Every structure is written in structure tokens, then in C-alpha cells.
UniProtKB/TrEMBL annotation:
Molecular function terms from GO: DNA-binding transcription factor activity; sequence-specific DNA binding
Species this protein is from: Donghicola mangrovi
Name of the protein this chain belongs to: AraC family transcriptional regulator
PROSITE patterns: HTH_ARAC_FAMILY_2 (PS01124)
Domain HTH araC/xylS-type: 181-278
Pfam annotation, one family: HTH_18
Keyword check for Transport: no
InterPro entries to which the protein is assigned, alphabetical: AraC_XylS_family_regulators, Homeodomain-like_sf, HTH-like, HTH_AraC
Protein keywords: DNA-binding, Transcription, Transcription regulation
């Protein structure tokens, strides 16, 4: 667990996103004679399972292999064909993804057209299950949740940056909600960057003081405090993976483990060692006989002791 990375959408409130599968899943099983030349009105995510497909999109020649996903944006003409195999199997799903009910979230991101769904041994069973269980003429609730997992994996692998030309004021509360969401995503993805808060505030399309107040109102912390919280969350993961306090401190940019411990306690509410002890107690199963309120009280008591 030495590499701990944050996902692009990890800090997005669940209620902020609206995923819609706009048609039944296309269960691809193409022969060498297969060809396509078309565009769609919505996004199309294609995942290759066996064989490979050749594509031409925006003047770029692309090859989609097993374990990879390709995103075709709305109203983007593409061509597809086969060359190097006898059968090409995969899934294609048309969808929309909106933030706060209004904004096309993917249009705000710069994404690679093709990305690996890694680790593929984790995602392959889900992708094959998604294909095999998809009804021919409808979509189901489980499909939406399963597809969100696959789409999130693609976004994390394909993400390059938030588009700078997307940073412009949008009318209403949805606009500031979206700007705060983007800022939180940037900070949580790069908490070790000492300049990330300054850069994020500079990029926000709002008055600096107003945006900082809006950020604190929605996140519960100022941007600087949020950066420190994200650092300590990473430190918690290192501690839980078995690293010492000194090692965890160094990995999140603290050369002095004593200062790190003070900061950890101030932000998380207990010392690094108390956090590890509380985790051990929670994992031991000794508290399962109590209801949730009693479990919380006993965990806090152990941490304080």
C-alpha cells in the first residue's frame, strides 16, 4: 500500500451526481466484417473484453484492447473496424453524467480517449457480469451502480486535468457548488503540493474571499484546512498499512514526527498511536456485542486512555 492516490470523484457528494444509462447495453460480439461509422447524441463508453477493435476518432487512429475502455464524446463522429482478430467482444454503454442536475461533468475534464481499467483482474469479472446480465431492451438499477464503478475506473485512469476553459462563473448556487467540487477534487488529489491551495484559489472563477467562504460553508473547512485534512487522511492509510509514525509523517511531508503527531491529533482528534489502537480494537470484533452508540463510546474511551 505504498502508493496511495485519490480518485478524481472521491470527494464529490453522492447527491451531486446524476448518472443516466440512456439505452440498453450493447453486448458487442463482432465478426471481421464489422464496421461502424456514426456519432451519438450522448457519451459512449466502450470496454473491450476479448479481441481488439480499431477506431478512428478526431483524426486519431486508436486500438482498443482487452482491459481498456474508450470514451466517445457526444456528437463525435468515429469509425470502427477489425483487423487483427476473428472476434471482438465487449460492451458499449450510452450515458449522461451530470453534476448538480445541470452540468455535463465530463465536458469539464480533459481525458485520454483510451485508458487501462487497472487492476484489470478486479474489474474484468464486473465487466463480464455487467455484459452477461444486461437485459436486451431495458436498463436496471444494479446496472447503474455497476456501470458507475467501471466509469469511475476509466475517469481515474484517463484524467489529465480539469479544463482551464471550464473555469467561468455559472449563474446560481449550482455554479458555486460545482466550483467548490472541482477545487476539493484538485486539493484532495494533490495534498502534498505546497502550491495547490494557492493555484486552486487563483483558478476559481469567483472573488477570492467569497469563494473561500463558500468552500468552508460546503466542505466544513477552509481550503488550507482541507489540504491538511487530506494529508492526515493519507497518513491514516499509511499507519493502517503498518508504517511507523515516523514513516507515515515523512510520506506526507513532515520531517518532524513530533510536530506531525500534534497536527494529526489537532485535525483527527486523537494521536497517531491512539488511532492505530482504536483501529485494532475495532477490527478485533470485541465491540460487536454492543449497539453503535456504545461501540462509539468505548472506542473514544480507549483512545482517550
Amino acid at each position: 500500500m505504498d502508493e496511495i492516490e485519490g480518485g478524481v470523484l472521491d470527494r464529490v457528494p453522492v447527491s451531486a451526481l446524476s448518472l443516466t444509462l440512456t439505452r440498453s447495453t450493447i453486448r458487442m460480439q463482432h465478426a471481421p466484417s464489422w464496421q461502424v461509422d456514426k456519432s451519438n447524441e450522448v457519451y459512449d463508453l466502450i470496454i473491450a473484453l476479448d479481441g481488439q477493435g480499431e477506431y478512428l476518432m478526431n483524426g486519431q487512429r486508436l486500438t482498443l484492447r482487452p482491459g481498456q475502455a474508450m470514451l466517445i464524446p457526444p456528437r463525435t463522429r468515429f469509425e470502427g473496424w477489425m483487423e487483427a482478430c476473428d472476434e471482438y467482444i465487449g460492451i458499449a454503454q450510452h450515458f449522461t453524467l451530470r453534476a448538480y442536475g445541470e452540468h455535463d461533468l465530463l465536458s469539464l475534464m480533459e481525458l485520454r480517449p483510451i485508458a487501462d481499467l487497472a487492476p484489470w483482474p478486479v474489474y474484468e469479472p464486473l465487466a463480464r457480469h455487467f455484459r452477461s446480465q444486461s437485459p436486451p431492451g431495458s436498463v436496471t438499477l444494479p446496472q447503474h451502480h455497476q456501470f458507475m464503478v467501471l466509469l469511475n475506473a476509466y475517469i481515474n485512469a484517463a484524467f489529465i486535468r480539469w479544463r482551464p476553459d471550464a473555469a467561468q462563473p455559472i449563474e446560481g448556487t449550482a455554479g458555486i457548488d460545482l466550483a467548490v467540487m472541482q477545487a476539493a477534487s484538485k486539493i484532495s488529489a494533490h495534498p502534498l503540493d505546497p502550491a495547490i491551495v494557492q493555484a486552486t484559489m487563483d483558478e476559481a472563477p469567483y472573488n477570492r474571499d467569497y469563494f473561500q467562504r463558500a468552500f468552508q460553508k460546503r466542505i466544513g473547512r477552509t481550503p488550507r484546512q482541507y489540504q491538511q485534512f487530506c494529508l492526515m487522511e493519507r497518513a491514516m492509510q499509511y499507519l493502517e498499512a503498518g508504517h511507523s509514525v515516523t514513516e507515515a509523517a515523512a510520506r506526507v511531508g513532515y520531517g518532524d514526527p513530533y510536530y506531525f503527531s500534534r497536527m494529526f491529533k489537532r485535525i483527527i482528534g486523537l494521536s497517531p498511536r491512539a488511532h492505530v489502537e482504536r483501529l485494532k480494537l475495532s477490527r478485533s470484533g470485541q465491540l460487536f456485542q454492543f449497539d453503535e452508540g456504545e461501540q462509539k463510546a468505548r472506542l473514544q474511551g480507549e483512545a482517550a486512555g
